[in-house]
Amino acid sequence: MRQFWLKQFRTWHWVSAAMSLTAMLLFAVTGITLNHASAIPATPVVVSKDAALPKSLLHALTGDMAESAPLPEAVAAEVDELVGIDVRGEPVEWSPEEAYVAIPGPGRDAWVSIDRASGAIASERTDRGWISFLNDLHKGRHTGSAWFWFIDAFALACIVFTITGLLLLQIHAKNRPSTWPLVAGGTLAPIVIIILFLHT
After folding, report:
1. What are the strands of the beta sheet with 45-52, ordered from one edge?
2. Whole-angstrom Cα distance, residue 200 to residue 99?
3. Which candidate in 51, 116, 141, 150 could, as Cys together with 82 as Cys, close a disulfide (CB 3.0–4.6 Å)?
4. pLDDT per position as a tens digit, 62-98
5. Three-state secondary structure string covering the chain
6. Rounded to an integer, what distance in angstroms lies between the CA atom of residue 58 and that of residue 116?
7. Residues 125, 108 contacting (CB under 8 angstroms)
8. pTM, to two decimals
9. How many angstroms separate the Cα of 17 from the Cα of each of 47, 165, 197?
10. How many Å apart are CA 102 and CA 105, to the nearest integer?
11. Rg for the chain (alpha carbons), in Å?
12. pLDDT digits 0-9 by tens, 95-141
């Protein structure tokens, strides 16, 4: 029975490790970059563009719009062509005077404002660089539903990896006397820091 469970734990351990290895490295590295964010220089690149919709499209912006309704397809396509920001399907903040679209994303932000009477377009895109992009992936900031579910799946793989690792430690601990002192040290270190050094 012992050999059966040892084989099972080893299989689950290496499979979960293989599945989470790359993401674990990403989250470990971005943990460091987030912890030292103030020491890492970053200069956002901001690009502003102004344009105007053709008068033939102004009629598409008239009338009452449903709350958060996206821009009409023809208007969205023209905005992308004029200022290089894809607003298709994005929710819009409608007011009597303007249509405002905010498009946040990992490591970047963009917005487009359209005057509903004149068709004047103002836009801005901010790119904060690769480190900011990776940091936002770590935080799940503006990353969408696919990344949301990936983080859950990755966390589950890490839980399996950790629990099976602990069970393997238990099986081999008899021949490795330093096992439990090391586990206890790793467990107590964050607890001691929280109690003694964090102002809660």
Report:
1. 45-52, 120-127, 108-115, 98-105, 93-94
2. 44
3. 51
4. 888 888 999 999 999 999 999 999 999 999 999 999 9
5. CHHHHHHHHHHHHHHHHHHHHHHHHHHHHHHHHHHCHHHCCCCCEEEEEEEECCHHHHHHHCCCCCCCCCCCHHHHHHHHHHHCCCCCCCCCEECCCEEEEEEEECCEEEEEEEECCCCEEEEEEEECCHHHHHHHHHHCCCCHHHHHHHHHHHHHHHHHHHHHHHHHHHHHHHHCCCHHHHHHHHHHHHHHHHHHHCCC
6. 7
7. yes
8. 0.82
9. 42, 10, 33
10. 10
11. 26
12. 999 999 999 999 999 999 999 999 999 999 999 999 999 999 999 99
> 99, 93, 111, 106: which is closest to 49 by C-alpha?
111
- Write down the residue that tokens 């990755």 correspond to: 154
Nearest Cα neighbor of 74 from 50, 58, 93 is 58
Distance CA 184, CA 2 (A): 25
Question: What's the length of the chain?
Answer: 200
Tokens of 119: 């068709």
For residue 101 the two structure tokens come to 């679209």
